UniProtKB/TrEMBL annotation:
This is Acyl-CoA dehydrogenase. Residues 259-379 form the Thiolase C-terminal domain. InterPro entries: Thiolase, Thiolase-like, Thiolase_C, Thiolase_CS, Thiolase_N. Keywords: Acyltransferase, Transferase. SUPFAM superfamilies: Thiolase-like (SSF53901). GO terms for molecular function: acyltransferase activity, transferring groups other than amino-acyl groups. Pfam families: Thiolase_C (PF02803), Thiolase_N (PF00108). The lineage of its organism: Bacteria, Bacillati, Actinomycetota, Actinomycetes, Kitasatosporales.
Amino acid sequence: MREAVIVEAVRTAVGKRNGGLSGMHAADLSAVVLGALVERTGIDPEVVDDVIWGCVSQVGDQSSNVGRYAVLAAGWPESIPGTTVNRACGSSQQALDFAAQAVMSGQQDVVVAGGVEVMSRVPLGAARSTGMPYGPQVLTRYQDFSFNQGISAEKIARKWGFARERLDAFSALSHERAAAARDAGAFEAQITAVSTEGATTVTLDEGIRRGTSVETLAKLRPAFTEDGVIHAGNASQISDGAAALLVTTPRKARELGLTPLVRYRAGVVTGSDPVLMLTGPILATEKVLRKTGVGLPEVGVFEVNEAFAPVPLAWLAETGADPALLNPLGGAIALGHPLGASGAVLMTRMVHHMRDHGIRYGLQTMCEGGGTANATLVELVSPAS
């Protein structure tokens, strides 16, 4: 089977709700990162076999195959197809897996994977506003559970014994790490500027709150239950953003004059308890490491999406990974979680971090609504390989 490599990874800054990117249509925001791929690699879009695009709330501005309209908005040839996938928060991570699988199988040679979500324009839960997606048989099976992720996060916190102060300390650290990363210029090479209709250029992630502490977070009220531990400060932020990855084979990369960043080693997806819902990354991590034969101590960076603070903390408790290697640049609590874009955003962050620090293996995993999770392992490609 052929190898798949990522030769470029680019993202927009992540905008906060009603922030700098809120006026952008999802297709137009997607076009920004597609254009950046072409500019950075020098490829002719004609070589792209497909564009696989993640998006969660596929209604309104994001309906009717936003992946296809992203291609057209970018000015690419009409012959270039595009499709939109939805695996909840892991949508663009799944898009990467699909792209790699297409390349490795020999069916396609050059595929763009990525995603978008403009939550300011298409609010969280908009797709459910006109109906019940679960159906009576699912509700009966799970005793009429609401499938509310916030309630699931509360259940995880109770099961693993995480007090609110522990969750808030993790959240404060996320902001601290994100601020330090931005100050050090860690995000500059991966972010492409977005010029909005108001002549504003967005280049910085907007969710970082300097000085966040356990004491400041203690002032926030629980969001889901009166005596709960989950609140706005230890949960991911509602955000806007897009990201794109160019996937091909080593041979095709050489033909195009491109240097691979990382080698795609494996991607897996797993199901888990849909009531706890957000614990899938634990199983997915075990599965991808078993599939590749790579040991946990060999991995130099982990990106575990911070949907809620209990999620990466439970993952850490169960895997025994080094906490210093978990989300070293901050996570969604500080940097935001633009749903369908987040998988590609995390991979972009991780790939650039691996290159900047010479890290051989990186592992990314994402919890997802309904109790599924993706995990992807990539390996740094040295210049000589």
